[in-house]
Amino acid sequence: MSTSDRKTARRGLRLVQGDADELADNPSRLRAVIRRAQTQLREDRSRLGSLRADVPRLVRLGRAIAAGNYRQLPWKSISFVAAGLLYFVTPFDLIPDFIVGTGFLDDAVVVAYVMKAIRDDLARFEDWELQNEPADPETLNPPY
Q: Phi and psi (nearest 5°) for 135?
């Protein structure tokens, strides 16, 4: 990730950080954002690029956090997950999502930054998930 991309990701995350911290503390609000993310994945699948692979991973982790099934994450990682999902569903961010061709570029940079920031925690979650959670066909192999 380039220096420019890191700066963009940090600016984007600052836009949602306060709300993301609230989401991390409120499972019902987090579930609502997860539902919006899943809807957006389905509706905008042709324009999402790398987000089609990364966002479902954040959705699965967010869902396990909100349900209280996975509790091995530090607060900072929970906040990052909430921020990444919130940024993805926010239509008016650094580059508004409705701009064809470029609208999701900032979302991809922010989500990639989040994925990198929580890489080790995400790997531990996915190992736990394989052992403990029944497979959800929509998020493991989403039709997006």
A: -65, 135
- H/E stretch holding 130: helix 119-132
The Cα 96–Cα 17 span in angstroms is 18
Please say whether the beta carbons of 21 and 15 come within 8 A: no
Sort 28 into a burial class: Cβ within 10 Å, 0-12 / 13-18 / 19+. Answer: exposed
98 alpha-carbon distance from chain centroid: 19
Dist. CA 31–CA 144, nearest whole Å: 19
**What pLDDT, in 10s, does the model give residues 86-138?**
988 887 766 665 655 666 778 888 899 999 999 999 999 999 999 886 655 55
Note the pLDDT of residue 116. Answer: 93
